[in-house]
Design brief:
Blueprint lengths: L3 E5 L6 H12 L2 E4 H14 L7 H7 L5 E6 L2 E6 L2 E2 L7 H10 L3 H17 L2 E5 L2 H5 L5 E6 L2 H14 L6 H17 L12 E4 L5 H11 L2
Parallel strand pairs: 1-6, 1-7, 2-6, 7-8
Antiparallel strand pairs: 3-4, 4-5
Helix pairs in contact: 1-9, 2-4, 2-5, 7-8
The structure holds 2'-deoxycytidine-5'-monophosphate (DC).
The site of 2'-deoxycytidine-5'-monophosphate has 15 residues, from helix 2, helix 4 and helix 8.
Amino acid sequence: MSINVAIDGPAGAGKSTIAKKLAKDLDYIYVDTGAMYRALAYFLIKKGMENSSEEQVSEIISQAQVSIQYENNQQQVYLNGENVTAYLRTEEVGNMASKTSAYKAVRAHLLALQQELAQSNNVIMDGRDIGTCVLPHADYKIYLTASVETRAKRRFDELVEKGETPDYDKIAKDIEERDYRDMHREIAPLKKAEDAHLVDSSNLSIEEVVQAIKDIMK
Ligand code: DC
């Protein structure tokens, strides 16, 4: 039986950094489900469907084949056979993913892929609905959060590091709007599973968060 660890939480709480580190330490695979939603969003942007209705998106989504491979332990996301990993972490793609991930057909399109990965591997899987919907029987569930200010500051620093000149207020506003959308959508909204452990990373280092989760897994 494979061991499944679900990590859910809002954008920018540090889920991917923590999940990657944990996966490396424990020799599990890291499954970034946000990247799958981003791949579908990227597909829709490429098709010029930023302002399309749910119905139009639902119709076309079957043309987007998303799959995952691991290269040097790094998750690579393929869209219709093309490795699109490098194009997924932009604000534009993230905002589109937040919008379109509310659609039933979009979620249904990715569910089986996520569940299959967890069935055949020890996984640390991060997302919004992993503990509540995708892996309701996960061995360990973590709800990782941090204040909006902390998350906006982290994102701001990340962009500065990349040589960009970001606007802090815009980042904070985007985060708030994304939280609202992710938490208030009808299907699979972001919320803490009843049996999830709450970890607030606002005042913790990466190492401290990783250790807190390892302690939970003891
Ligand atoms: O974690 P992320 O920022 O890469 O996710 C991008 C968007 O995808 C996020 O705003 C909500 C959506 N998402 C989701 O609905 N369910 C998941 N399991 C993962 C991400």
